[in-house]
Amino acid sequence: VRILLVDDAEDIRRIAHLSLEGLGRFPTALAASAAEALAMAASDPPDLIVMDVLMPDMDGPTALAALRRDPALRAIPVVFMTARAQPADEARYLALGAIGVIRKPFDPMTLPGELQRLVGPR
Amino acid sequence: MITTLLIDHGGTARDTLRDALAMRGGILLDATALTDHDTPDIVVVGDPPGLERVRQVRASHPRLPIVFLAARAQDLPVVSQLVNELGVALVVNQPVDPTVFARQLLAVVARLRDRSPPATRPTFAAELAALRAAFAAKLPDKLAEIAAAIAAARWNPAHAPAARMLAHRLSGSAGSYGHTALGATLEALEHALESGAAATVDALMETARAHVLQVREPGS
Hints:
The complex is a heterodimer of chains A (122) and B (220). Helices cover 43% and strands 18% of the residues of chain A. Chain A has 122 residues and is an alpha/beta fold.
């Protein structure tokens, strides 16, 4: 599973990257904004996008909507990784088309397993 | 030639250890800390300065073999933390026999060289420990950045979203780096900034500062 991780917080990108590549053995590309992620996904579509919700300029749900409008990118599964994960929030993200939600803070020791569970066996 | 850097504020028998290493083709250097320019083959961290210095060495040198020279027998959780989280190769209790200790140091270097070619990446645990140590070192600056943003927002409310975003960002990061209490405090701060409760904001900032102090100086 090739992952594109999108988060505006550098510290989050670092620890998630280490967790996903070092522990999960998932090749992981990083984007610091939703706009950057959309460009990266268009040029080299990943198998999964893990995306923050609250980001400056463009938030996660807006980026997800943009992905879903693009025929070449609409099939890429998206998982939101966010501190805003009350049941009502989760329901909204799933209704938008996300396949799951990872709550921040996350545990770097279990993050790859949680994502694998959401993606299912491949 | 094996270069050993000794960081020890205690009473280790430096001279006899230096002689014991020299007899086996090694050299011993003394230091109060490890700088980015130092390139020893192995570092011995005494106690004092202890665990905090191990963290600093690991943060700046993720792949360097570290031996912890404990002032006394360590509890199992401490040994586990040293080995599993900080990637310490060996924990030795004082007092040591300099000749035996010199042999142990050279054996650690030889063992680690045999096990991994030079380009091998450090273990996940060591990388995670280094990342956590580096994050902890940045916490005072990050909190100061939030304090400045809050002050700016009080002067001009247009800056309020920036202060909330900084608190939000650090909240998610702190918890993910294992600082759960700090993360929860910053999450509460983010909400307090939203509601504009100045007294609550100030109280939460004080709590956050106390958490950061605790992270930087455990036991304080």
